[in-house]
Amino acid sequence: MIKRIVLFFGDSQNAKTRWRLLYITLAIIVIADFLVHREHVEFFWDKIPGWSALYGFISCVLLIFVSKFIGHIWLMKDEDYYD
């Protein structure tokens, strides 16, 4: 069972199927957010359907870009830095 899963995710021939599964999963998450009853919310944006998914996506992308920016500007050193 584990071998089949590893081969499925590691094989480039299954890339199209993996992308379809990703899009289906994302659509299910956003649709499920429309079904949640929001009676007692603390902030007005918590009432917006799909807000959590959008906020999580934007946060993840922002975290990646900030990390890459810090890595390239400050952390990364030249090849001959220690010479």
Give an overview of the whole structure:
The chain has one domain (2-75). The model has no long low-confidence stretch (mean pLDDT 84). It is built from three helices and no strands. The protein has 83 residues and is an all-alpha fold.
Question: Could you give a short description of this structure?
Answer:
By secondary structure, this protein is mostly helical.
Number of domains: 1
Q: What is the radius of gyration computed over CA atoms, rounded to a whole number of angstroms? A: 20 Å
Main sheet characteristics: none
Distance, first to last CA: 50 Å
Q: How are helices and strands ordered from N to C?
A: HHH
Described by the principal axes of the CA atoms, the overall outline is flat
Which percent bin holds the helix content? 55-70%
Number of helices: 3
Estimated structural class: mainly alpha
Residue runs with pLDDT of under 50 for 5 or more positions? none
> Beta-strand percentage?
under 5%
Question: Average pLDDT value?
Answer: 84
Beta strand count: 0
Features:
83 residues, mainly alpha, 3 helices, flat
SSE layout and pairing:
Layout: H1 2-10, H2 15-34, H3 51-75
